[in-house]
Amino acid sequence: MRLSIGQVHRNVLALASSRSCFVLGDRVSFRMLSQPRVAGFHQTAWRGSQILEDNRGGPLTLASLEVQSRVEYGKKGKMERTGGPKPSSRASSLYVKPKVSSNVKPAKSALMKPAGIKKTLKVDEALFSAKSFEELGLPPLLVDQLNKEGLTAPTEVQSAAIPIIAQKHDVVIQSYTGSGKTLAYLLPILSDIGPLKRTMEQDHSEKRSGIEAVIVAPSRELGMQIVREVEKILGPNDKRLVQQLVGGANRSRQEEALKKNKPIIVVGTPGRISEISAAGKLHTHGCRFLVLDEVDQLLSFNYREDMHRILEHVGRRPGGTSRDILGPLARRSERQTILVSATIPFSVIRAARSWGHDPVLIRAKSVVPLDSITVPRPALSQSDANPSSSSQSVNQAAVGSLPPSLEHYYCTAKAQHKVDTLRRCIHALEAQTVIAFMNNTKPLKDVVFKLEARGIKATELHGDLGKLARSTVLKKFKDGEFRVLVTNELSARGLDVPECDLVVNLDLPTDSTHYAHRAGRTGRLGRKGIVVTICEESEGFVVRKMRKQLDVAIKPCEFTEGELVVHKEEDVE
Ligand SMILES: Nc1ncnc2c1ncn2[C@@H]1O[C@H](COP(=O)(O)OP(=O)(O)OP(=O)(O)O)[C@@H](O)[C@H]1O
Question: DEAD-box RNA helicase Q domain location, by residue (predicted)?
Fold first, then answer.
């Protein structure tokens, strides 16, 4: 395939999508494919073949990637599914056999009743790569530690990401929820820094001191989850090498720990990292890795000042290009930048291009250079802004973000009957670990109260709770003390509760990206999971619209006589 390459320099100040993703920096260089029909990487079905075995240890270049000659175009609108069969073709194994009546057609999958004991949801082996951790070049000490933790095979996205990150590329990792993106970036980092790294580099790297990796996450809960993951791999003797810098926790204690423990990795929320950095207590100029987990959220308007500081300070090369000419964030730095999310809008691709060295997009079974992806121009001013194209970008971001193992349904209920419908839904599906989402904080308590009154153990989680209460609630829910967690958007991103077998939307998510992240709290790592949206009759069209945007079947249903009854599509369209 021939690429026509042009350079476009552009001042980018404006938001690039309806979700207010902003692009920092004032000079963006990107190349465009000559084919105008290419809508973008999510929709266009890029099929970069699995190229990892083609890299024979040398530095990864576009030529070595062989992507230009090996990329194929799929049909417009069809997406490439990775790491598992299509939803329609899979065999399912969830709790209930759907009831079929005259106006009802059976669900495609065969649902089955559970044993009356606490379920252990089976992990789908198709999600795992054929390669082993050793074959991906991880150091023996690290592989041993992974084995000790019961991690014996990499997932597809880990298999794709580990060698590319090890070759020092700036990357964007996009893979569906629960596919193992956290280890996809942690493992190559821990191969390079800390006590488990490659032995041949040990002597040289021993001399390094200070923070070598900064990982940023949008919520305290996700930050702490990442910290636990790093601690697990480092083991009890070295867990002090990772320091949490999340908001809500005691700042002076965090600062003391930085001084005393001399961590090599910090994980935190944007506000707290930037606060401690501004106070001169966090020195990250020599940092080699910057990870933005849930990057599309981190680059939203809400975080712009803190993220600006982080991008400006972390791993900054002393004496970089003058900010007068290029602006502070267009300056190339020595750090390796790793951007991660299940949903990657065009604004993130643009940002990654402007910050990175030959950045590549890694998906579970493909690796493509970002320069080869056509993205629409960002709106430069209010008058240029085309709301439909920016919302299109957000919707495009959601395609391919959902695990194939999920089943999606929706039913209608009046507002005052939603909790009762939720109760019937939980019983019909015999769900044991349920996350119910609402859009606001206030009504959460009321839903908990009503569920408890109906004999279902429930609890609420939201940002207004104190730090301690938040972690206690989450721990108790993970330990199975509560059957239902009623929560808001706070829990939609990154939260990993492997046992979660049902997600319910009690309020409609604001768009398909929000739907994807909420839905992704179930069906983790290829496990089976069900997502049910309970909406009012007048909102049914919104669900059907999201279904189209996400390219997944969200089937109309109801819960009667303790059964899930799936309706024929024609009856409701
Ligand atoms: N190779 C592996 N073997 C077994 N379990 C794994 C492996 N990799 C990751 N996991 C587990 O899979 C679960 C999901 O991983 P993770 O939270 O990294 O997913 P994710 O892709 O980041 O999801 P999200 O997009 O929702 O943040 C976690 O419980 C994690 O410990």
Answer: 131-159
Residue with the larger pLDDT of the pair 256 and 70: 256
Nearest to 190 by CA among 137, 132, 150, 111: 137
550-to-78, 162, 182, 279, 452 alpha-carbon distances in Å: 11, 28, 23, 43, 34
Q: What is the mean pLDDT of the chain?
A: 77
List the one residue out of 165, 181, 555 whose CA is nearest residue 343. 181
Give residue 146 CA to ligand 1 midpoint distance, Å. Answer: 13
> Which runs of E-coded beta strand occur in 17-139?
none
Ligand 1 center from residue 403 Cα (angstroms): 12
Q: Which two tokens stand for residue 113?
A: 């009743």
Ligand 1: centre distance to CA 385 (Å): 37
The per-residue pLDDT for range 32-57, each reduced to its tens digit, is 222 332 232 233 222 333 333 333 33
Q: Is residue 44 part of a domain?
A: no
- Atom of ligand 1 at shortest distance to CA of 155? 1
> Which alpha helices (H) appear in 149-215, and where do they start and end?
156-166, 181-192, 202-206
ipTM, two decimals: 0.99
Q: Which residues contact 207 (CB under 8 A, 6 or more apart)?
A: none
Confidence of residue 378 (pLDDT cuts 50, 70, 90): low
Per-residue pLDDT tens for 542-560? 999 999 999 999 999 999 9
CA 498–ligand 1 middle distance (angstroms): 9
My answer on whether 360 and 462 are in the same domain is no
517 or 317, greater pLDDT: 517
pLDDT (0 to 100) of residue 207: 54
> Which of the four pLDDT bands, split at 50, 70 and 90, describes residue 31?
very low
In this structure, the answer to whether residues 217 and 343 fall within a common structural domain is: yes
Is the domain of 358 the same as that of 432?
no
Of ligand 1's atoms, which has the minimum distance to the CA of residue 128? 1
What DSSP state is assigned to residue 126?
A: G
Length of the chain: 573
Residues whose beta carbon lies within 6 Å of some atom of ligand 1: 151, 153-155, 158, 175, 177-183, 342, 494, 496, 498, 520, 524-525
Distance CA 307, CA 523 (A): 31
> Which residues constitute the domain of residue 129?
125-197+210-318+332-372
Name the residue of 134, 406, 496, 514 to mutate for ligand 1: max ligand atoms within 8 A of Cβ. 496
Residues 307 and 423 in one domain: no
Q: Is 418 exposed, middle or buried (0-12, 13-18, 19+ CB in 10 A)?
A: buried
Tell me how far the alpha carbon of residue 84 lies from the centroid of ligand 1, in angstroms. 15
Q: How many structural domains compose the chain?
A: 2
Give the distance (Å) from ligand 1 centre to CA of residue 284: 27
Count other C-beta atoms under 10 Å from residue 348's C-beta: 29
User: Alpha-carbon distance 117 to 111, whole Å?
Assistant: 17
